[in-house]
Design brief:
The complex is a heterodimer. By secondary structure, chain A is mostly helical. Helices cover 78% and strands 0% of the residues of chain A. Chain A contains twelve helices and no strands. The longest helix of chain A has 36 residues. By secondary structure, chain B is mainly α. In chain B, 70% of the residues lie in helices and 2% in strands. Chain B has twelve helices and two strands. In chain B, strands 1-2 form a two-stranded antiparallel sheet. In chain B, α3 runs parallel beside α7 and α8 runs antiparallel to α9. Chain B is globular, with a radius of gyration of 24 Å. Chain B starts with 14 loop residues before the first helix and ends in a 6-residue tail after the last helix. The chains are: A mainly alpha, B mainly alpha. At the A-B interface, α1, α2, α4, α5 and α6 of A face α1, α3, α4, α5 and α7 of B.
Chain lengths: 283, 291
């Protein structure tokens, strides 16, 4: 079948002049690169605006149109106590939920890659569900649970909700990173007399550590960024995105942009460190 | 020696179960049980007041009929917007993923970094930035207006296209990455082989590259369509009252109106549709392309 298709095509293309094909190829190549660049620009445009507007001195309360360059907001990023408090909550929630989900999720990843057990494939599918469920449904269903249990929503329920969506994420990200490793050195370690526990701490864990660090960084970012699920389960607790949503009607101060830019810069530093470490590991 | 018997030979049978147990327990309580409480809520009646709702479970299927009846527009609109956004995302993501996989050379890591960069700036703040970009007195409106590409009222904000564009923006990286991964996995020898057999670049693309990248396109579509259909941020910030979506209604009914049963019924319908899609997908293609 496939062979037939190829021969048919070969005769089809041999009638074309190669020069024309090459010329089209060059134009096509350029078009391809230009469109890729435009898509990157599209992804980048709002970030540029956010960074730019952190240097804006808005005329009124709304920081939506450009007025005048100023460093005021950068000089005083914590001017609004509610915003600062919300940011603090966000960081605390992200740290707590990331620690728990990385600890629990990494074990699942190791089990998925290294162990044979009943229900492995079902677990695999099951883990994907929270990852692909629409956030609004996750948030709403958790809300009905908390309503049913009569729990007050607040800091604790936000942490639980975040762990809920991070767990699968950690398990599957770490799994993806560890799948390609050569695990025979685990056997070698045990052949050389190490017990399973020692093998785990000395061999298995160091091998999957880059995967765990990557999963932790992304989980932290996911938690910091989450609006929808948090919105449903926050009660009166505020987080950075919740503050932004509540404040937007009355006008956002440029400090919001300053904090967003700061998060971006810190992430870039971490990514840079990760990249350098990777490069060193390869060399 | 038993050394070749394979891995995990010296770990006890219960070990993997102990490793997965905490996560399973957590997800059982905070993911599976909520699906049941959601279902239960969707079949309850509110016997209290609107301010202090008191729910009683009563197999109230009428909630579903009522939700469908009242919010048919939003349900239809959500899926239409999500579908339109997904198609546009495929068209935008594919060339970028292709360049990343085959043409980026030493720029590859930088470009990949740019694709995931938006993840590190708060979703909500990015959407608000689009408000600035698409504003009535902004550059984009000026340019599009000058070449007569805008509708009569000359606005971009508050139109369905602004909402769809916002959805495209928010989920595009989730389309680019799986397509890129599936393209990169293609064995270059296959492409060589198609050239050796006198296939033109176009034919080689259609017969070799495109089919082999389909799993990535499908994974990306799943990862983008689902959150897009449940999103309400873009509709809220970039749209108008005529662009409200399913998520808008669920959120308003739960958190503002506190009509829990109707909201739960709508959420459950969305959840059921998603579950069917995801399970069908994983049964057919596995979970590998999704992460």
């Amino acid at each position: 079948m496939a062979g037939e298709g190829v021969t048919e095509e070969a005769t089809g293309s041999s009638t074309k002049r190669p020069g024309a094909a090459r010329r089209f190829g060059r134009v096509g190549d350029l078009a391809l690169r230009v469109s890729a660049g435009l898509v990157l620009l599209f992804l980048f445009a709002p970030i540029f605006v956010i960074v730019l507007f952190s240097f804006n001195k808005p005329k009124g309360k709304f920081n939506l149109t450009w007025n005048e360059f100023s460093l005021d907001a950068w000089a005083d990023p914590f001017r609004y106590p509610q915003l600062t408090k919300a940011m603090g909550n966000s960081l605390e929630i992200a740290a707590l939920s990331t620690v728990v989900s990385v600890a629990l999720g990494s074990f699942v990843a190791i089990a998925l890659v290294r162990q044979r057990f009943v229900g492995r494939d079902t677990l695999d599918t099951f883990l994907v569900l929270p990852l692909t469920a629409a956030e609004v449904v996750m948030g709403a269903s958790l809300l009905t649970l908390f309503l049913d249990l009569g729990w007050n929503r607040g800091f604790g329920t936000i942490v639980l909700a975040h762990i809920g969506f991070q767990l699968s994420f950690v398990a599957l990200t770490v799994r993806a990173r560890v799948r390609g490793h050569d695990w025979t050195i685990e056997d070698a370690s045990m052949d050389l007399g190490a017990n399973p526990r020692r093998t785990f701490w000395k061999i298995t864990l160091p091998l999957i550590m880059p995967g765990i660090i990557a999963a932790a960084m992304l989980s932290f970012a996911l938690s910091l960024d989450d609006f929808i699920i948090t919105f449903f389960n926050a009660g009166s607790t505020s987080t950075y995105p919740l503050y932004v949503n509540a404040a937007v009607k009355n006008g956002l101060p440029p400090q919001v942009n300053v904090l967003a830019t700061a998060i971006l810069l810190i992430s870039l530093v971490f990514l840079g460190i990760g990249g350098l470490r990777n490069r060193r590991a390869v060399e | 020696m038993a050394g070749t018997a394979g891995s995990g030979r010296r770990t006890a049978k219960w070990v993997p179960y102990a490793m997965i147990a905490p996560t399973l327990a957590f997800l059982l309580v905070f993911f599976v049980v909520p699906i049941f409480t959601l279902f239960k809520t969707s079949l309850s009646v509110n016997s209290g007041s609107l301010f202090v709702p008191e729910l009683k479970f009563d197999w109230e299927w009428a909630n579903y009929a009522a939700a469908f009846d009242e919010y048919r527009d939003q349900i239809f609109r959500s899926f239409w917007y999500a579908l339109a956004a997904t198609v546009i995302m495929i068209a935008m993501a594919y060339p970028l993923a292709y360049v990343l996989a085959f043409k980026a050379g030493r720029w590859k890591n930088l470009m990949l970094g740019m694709v995931i960069l938006p993840f590190f700036v708060t979703f909500l703040v990015r959407t608000i930035a689009w408000k600035t970009i698409l504003a009535d007195d902004g550059v984009v409106v000026d340019v599009l207006g000058a070449i007569h590409l805008l509708p009569a009222d000359g606005r971009l904000l508050s139109t369905p296209w602004a909402v769809i564009g916002g959805l495209v923006y928010n989920f595009l990286p989730f389309m680019v990455l799986p397509i890129y991964v599936s393209l990169e996995k293609i064995d270059p020898r296959l492409i060589e082989a198609s050239k050796d057999l006198y296939s033109s670049a176009g034919r080689g693309f259609r017969k070799v590259i495109l089919p082999l990248s389909m799993p990535g396109v499908l994974a990306g579509s799943l990862l983008c369509f689902i959150p897009a259909s449940g999103d309400f941020i873009n509709a809220e910030y970039l749209g108008s009252t005529r662009t409200t979506m399913l998520g808008t209604v669920i959120q308003k009914q739960f958190l503002v109106v506190k009509d829990y049963p109707t909201a739960a019924a709508m959420s459950f319908v969305l959840m059921a549709i998603i579950l069917v899609m995801v399970i069908a997908y994983t049964r057919a293609l596995g979970t590998e392309d999704l992460v």
